[in-house]
Design brief:
The chain contains 8 helices and 7 strands, in the order H-E-H-E-H-H-E-H-E-H-E-E-H-H-E. Helix 3 crosses helix 8. The chain has a 5-stranded parallel sheet with strand order 3-2-1-4-5, sandwiched between helices. Strands 6-7 form a two-stranded antiparallel ribbon. The chain is of the alpha/beta class and 345 residues long. Bound molecules: zinc ion. Zinc ion (ZN) binds next to loops.
Length: 345
């Protein structure tokens, strides 16, 4: 997560539109089709069929789950329950953090009580968020989970899908940390810089190495630009992986963190999907959590103390009795894109 760039604080207009879309059609407002004399009329029935229960997300035994987190905490917000379930059913979990979440001025100011943070302050904040990410997985009962921090620029991922794609121009430089490459100790591919093709290459390396049977990544429609870009980068890197391993298949599922003012505080114990957002190719799928899984998730979210200090209510909104996922519709990702698909989110 990260509040900047996201729009979950405002748009009443979108909500009004969603409400309009969800309103039942006014009876008689549309011309009715006349029943065809050649077709038998349906027998009127006094008993309504029971509503179709929402599909569940199946978690096969021995799942190899890769969670793509744009920032430390997105993994637990979106899939903290799923990660526990995979572990409990004999599977393996690996989390890749695309950024350290260090480009968050409001968070740094609040945490360090300083008015004008320096590059050193931002870097320190990122290190703290990494420690929190580790503590959170320990709290989820996943102390041995493989955590990979790629160290790409927080708040800059969408720029890497187009303008800062290749060596044809200089690498992107973070306005916060002033870095234009990940720390050398974190580079999976030598000489990696803040360029889109470098990020895709590193992700492809992780996927080729881990061979996940399931990958959880934010939805393309997530209104935080880094989250949207994460979807594009994952799917671009999957193209690369399949070129090398044509037999590779995986189950891509999507989670969502930022969508208007969702999740709503007064929704009760269940996490309903965001209104106005359809459930992709699969429809929304629920993963019901046990009380212990929900409790662990809530406690794990509290390990992100830097984020709890600025938006505890938002994090708590995800600690419910279920999680929601969807599978994406077929979509051909070609990067670099001709326009920046996420920067205007
Ligand atoms: Zn995030």
């Amino acid at each position: 997560m990260n509040s900047k760039n996201s729009r979950w604080a405002a748009p009443a207009l979108s909500l009004a539109f969603a409400a309009l879309m969800l309103s039942p059609a006014v009876d008689g407002a549309q011309p009715r089709a006349m029943p065809s004399p050649s077709k038998p009329r349906a027998k009127p029935s006094a008993v309504k069929p029971p509503p179709t229960p929402p599909p569940m997300l199946e978690v096969p035994e021995a799942t190899r789950l890769l969670v793509i987190a744009p920032h430390p905490d997105d993994d637990v917000l979106g899939a903290g329950g799923l990660m526990q379930r995979v572990k409990a059913t004999g599977g393996t979990v690996r989390v890749v953090y695309l950024t350290d979440g260090d480009g968050y001025p409001e968070g740094v100011k609040e945490e360090d009580h300083i008015e004008t943070p320096t590059a050193t302050d931002y870097l320190g904040y990122g290190k703290q968020r990494r420690r929190e990410a580790h503590a959170a997985l320990v709290r989820l009962g996943l102390p041995g989970a493989f955590q990979t921090f790629l160290g790409f620029p927080d708040g800059g991922l969408c720029r890497l899908t187009r303008a800062y794609w290749s060596e044809r121009r200089g690498a992107y430089r973070s306005p916060y940390t002033r870095l234009n490459r990940p720390p050398r100790s974190e580079m999976l591919v030598p000489a990696t810089q803040y360029r889109g093709e470098d990020l895709s290459q590193e992700l492809a390396l992780v996927i080729g190495d881990f061979k996940p049977t399931m990958i959880a990544v934010p939805r393309r429609e997530d209104q935080h630009a880094d989250h949207c870009a994460a979807w594009y980068f994952l799917n671009d890197s999957l193209n690369d992986v399949r070129r090398v391993h044509p037999e590779f298949t995986t189950d891509e599922i999507n989670y969502i963190v930022h969508f208007n003012t969702w999740p709503f505080e007064d929704d009760g114990p269940r996490l309903e999907p965001p209104p106005g957002l359809r459930g992709g190719a699969s429809g929304w799928m629920r993963l019901p959590l046990t009380p212990a899984e929900t409790r662990n998730k809530r406690q794990a979210l509290r390990r992100f103390t830097t984020q709890m200090h600025v938006m505890d209510w938002f994090l708590d909104g995800f600690a419910r009795s279920n999680e929601v996922f969807s599978r994406p519709k077929p979509f051909r990702v070609i990067l670099p894109s001709r326009r920046s698909p996420c920067c205007d989110q």
